[in-house]
Amino acid sequence: MTTALIDLRPATPEDCDALADIHSTAWLGAYRGLLNGVELQRLVSRRTAPWWRAALSRGVQIKLLQVADEPAGYATFGTCRIRDLASEGEIYELYLKPEYQGLGFGRSLFESVRAELAARNLSGLAVQVLSDNDPACTFYKALGGKFAAKSWYRSAGKRMGLSVYTWPALT
Question: Which of 6, 97, 111, 142 is most buried, by CB atoms within 10 Å?
Answer without folding.
Answer: 97
